[in-house]
Amino acid sequence: MLNPQHPMQLALGLTVWSVWFVALYGGLLTLIGPLDQWAHTGTGPHMVQHMLLMGLIAPLWILLRPQAQLVRGSGALGQPLIGGLARLARHPLWMAYLHGGAIWLWHLPAVYDLALDHAGWHAAEHLSFLLTAVLFWWAVLSTSARRSPFALLALLLTLMHTGFLGAIMTFGREPFYADARDLQDQQLAGLIMWVLGGIPYLLAAGWVTRRWLLHLSRRMANA
Amino acid sequence: MTETTPVQPHEATEQTRSLHQTFSRVWANWPGLGSLAAVNHTTLGLRFMITGLIFFLIGGVLAMLARTQLALPEQNILTADVYNQVFTMHGTIMMFLFAIPVLEGLAIYLIPKMIGARDLVFPRITALGYYCYLFGGIIILSSLFLGVAPDSGWFMYTPLSSAEFSPGPGSDFWLLGITFVEISAMAAGIELTVSILRTRAPGMTLRRMPIFCWYILAMALMIVFGFPPLILASILLELERATGMPFFDPGGGGDPLLWQHLFWLFGHPEVYIIFLPAAGIVSTLIPVFSGRPLVGYRWVVLSIIVTGFISFGLWVHHMFTVGIPQLAQAFFSVASMLVAVPTAIQVFAWLATLWTGRVRFTLPMLWIFGFLVIFVCGGLTGVMLALVPFNWQVHDTHFVVAHMHYVLVGGMFFPLIAGLYYWLPHVTGRLPSERLGKWGFWLTFIGFNATFLLMHLTGLLGMPRRVYTYEAGLGWDWLNLLSSVGGFIMAAGVAMIVLDLLLHARLGRRAPANPWQADTLEWATATPPAPYNFASQPTVTSRHPLWDQSDVAQQMAAGEGHLGEVQQDQRDTLGTDAITARVAERCHLPGNTWLPMLSAAALAVVCIGLLIRIYPLALAGCLVAAVFLLRWSWLNGGHPLAAPLTDAELAGKDDDQSPPLESRTLDGPGRWGMIITLLANGTLYASLLFGWFYLWTASPQWSAPADSPLATLPLLATAILVTVLTLLYRDRVRHLQGGEDRHLAAALGSLTVLGAIATGAVLWVMVSAPLAATEQAHDAVLMVMLIYLFWHCGLATVLTGLQALRVRLGYVSAHLPYETRVLQPFWVYTCGVFWLSLAAFIGLPMAWGGG
């Protein structure tokens, strides 16, 4: 499909490639690089790590449409699994509930501190964030024209509830978590979730709307 | 208004004349006092706008009183107390009784005509909304004449508005009255959403929808998501004032800042709820008067939706000075700049349309240019206010007052008047006076700028807002005097407009059909319009039907389109697919009825009962309202007074070619209405959850007992019971969809009994729990949560019981499965709320643990 001779196609190819590059290496950097060390120094940096996972890497990865390759490469065992996930990903609102459930659950102080103390739980935390985020973004970003309004609702819901959680962390009268250096650290974490974390959802809302309108006009042209 | 014979878009023949007479007989309002029972959108849209205009004039008089008082230093025309009431009522009336209702009225009047429909999809809801608005407005206004008007400012900050510092009934008038008026906003929001999505003329896909409809759709959805936080906050504050539940009182573990969060959670979207429809007017008028389509339709739609999203995240920038963390101020200062982006997209789209078109400089365009100038200035001062240091400097000064008036008058009033002049020929069939209109514009424009441009300076020189007088020699004297003079010039301009409105109905020239050569379908009606709008509905093939589809108006009026004849003496309009606009069903619309007015009157009794604290009266009002509302729900679907099964249908012979009635389908607009209502309801519940978490983590003296005071196991058992009920209900509905309706009445009857048991269980938990709701905010929130569960469980049960009865009477059956499908989402929602409540109010405190 891609024709490297054509300048537009080449530019598109380069864009896709660089997005892939950012997603992959950004992801590695977040999980194992210096950022992970930094994430142990306070709630704010830790939140940056989570936000990169959920708000940057997951959506970029989905935008690369890796599903086809995954199905190819995963063999007899993985294919039904990916097919099952694909069925789940047809329901943006349910995926938003699932993702929201994971976010709120891991932010309960007792659960959060558990993850801080045990590397295994920490891995589980990151895995559940990443997995539910991937499902959420998959459902939202590759939705059909008919389900686009639900994708927008799912985005609004997620924007609002992460905002509420961020607000609660911002206005809390004392630190909730064991890794907070001080109250300001937690406020920073809350604001990163509330304000910076909201940007991917806003951009996605614009993207979904644009895609939806394009779908509709294409259908109109065909009709 | 006048007995003008309507201008018809077609040559009347004998045949079309008799067609229109038949339609008129079915669709006309009752004569005389009977017109109070009208449900027609044209009638009610106009009533909304005229009522709003009257409230605007009253609000304007209050503004003139305030300006008179401030014209010279150290005056005593108004006492401090009266002045407080005056500015509070000015803001309240202009926001809640003028701006929002007038725009709703405009949308109610225009939307069905623009989308080629005959009426809104829930006509009785339109009427209920109007009466709630009228009665609520009168109740609020009466406080002014009783001398006990609210006086804590239009945003009613606690603790100033709490019982301790506002002991009189003023705050109660505001809280109860505004909540009552908000029923009309919610009604309009839900109804407009469903109407736009489900009753567009065949072929009008979303892409072919006039841009105005996108704006109104966004406004309607923002009402659905934006108003619930304020409704919840008002209920909580009124509960605090009436019973002492300390939601906002730090002494009892509450927090006054919670009010501000909930208020601005509504208040920021509300700015856009007001601005978007006005921008919709601009986006409609500019292309018409430029003689070309809007530049960047898709970009404008995109920016509308993004504006809606952004507006739900920025409420904190109204609270820079109340003592929130400095870090938060920095973040929101930057984030506030974001708002400018989607608005700028629209401004550039308008400029590009003007630039590339051939502009006709008409009276409406004059107001549009006024809008562009003033609104852009207001936007710029808004960016200034987003800078925290500057915000701190001018907080609570007249600079903020000036900014707000630039945004609201520039962003809403100017486009509104442009729209008024544009659509006036549609409403009355006559043209206004160009000369009076120009006087009106220039007086308003000059007067407005004289008042508010100078007021920026007054504010920068340090004059605080909401003070009833000031000392001479502070440098504010001449500014205030000029502002007052400007205010009176603006008032003269408004008087010109009103005079023009009154005179043109008698003296105006007859307007030809489609006088502005517009592109949208509302100009395909007769002018003034007939109550049924169109004798037949069109097939739309273009975004600009009147430009691109020649003769569409004539064909519609000649009855050559869809539903071109009256069937069974019923009012009807087509229901179409939300996206593709393919014909899905024929919606039977109810005719004139007193029920909406009676229901609203009963609710007004509730409101008054609560105000004067005679609770038996309020309870009686509730019961009467319930009777009227349930009777209303009874007259639907297969009821003999609605759309009963015909003999052919009973015999199973369905040879009718026309689309099925919505009560014979599974997914009509009613189900959409239910779901949109539940979205609003869910937002209310989410706001309650936010309040709970907020108080838990931020309230300075929050105290929670170690163990939940609620009986956990019984609540858990009830939640399981409700889940089982929901599943059983769903199962019955699925059978019904498959055409299986044996033992349906018995099954629904037993579900009702189970529902009653669940409702009783919640009541028992509520009564038996040792809750000190009037002493501890913790217990007060739990109490509200339990009342919420009780209400939902009880309502679901009652409605299921009514369904059982209707099955027995034959109004619901395999032929008529629709109503059970409408009720189903309510059970699912109730079930969801049960589990969420268990998790958040009982599970979470247990899991909070060591933190």
TrEMBL record, chain A:
InterPro entries: Caa3_assmbl_CtaG-rel. The keyword Cell membrane applies. Coiled coil: none annotated. It is a multi-pass membrane protein. The chain crosses the membrane at residues 12-35, 47-64, 94-112, 118-138, 150-171, 191-209. The keyword Membrane applies. Keywords: Cell membrane, Membrane, Transmembrane, Transmembrane helix. One of its GO terms (cellular component) is plasma membrane. Pfam families: Caa3_CtaG. It is found in: Cell membrane. This is Cytochrome c oxidase assembly protein.
From TrEMBL, chain B:
It is a multi-pass membrane protein. Keywords: Cell membrane, Copper, Electron transport, Heme, Iron, Membrane, Metal-binding, Oxidoreductase, Respiratory chain, Translocase, Transmembrane, Transmembrane helix, Transport. The keyword Ligase does not apply. It comes from the Bacteria. The chain crosses the membrane at residues 44-66, 86-110, 130-149, 173-197, 209-237, 271-289, 296-318, 330-354, 366-392, 404-424, 436-458, 478-503, 594-612, 618-635, 672-696, 708-729, 744-768, 780-805, 826-848. Residues 21-541 form the Cytochrome oxidase subunit I profile domain. Pathway: Energy metabolism; oxidative phosphorylation. This is cytochrome-c oxidase. It comes from Natronospirillum operosum.
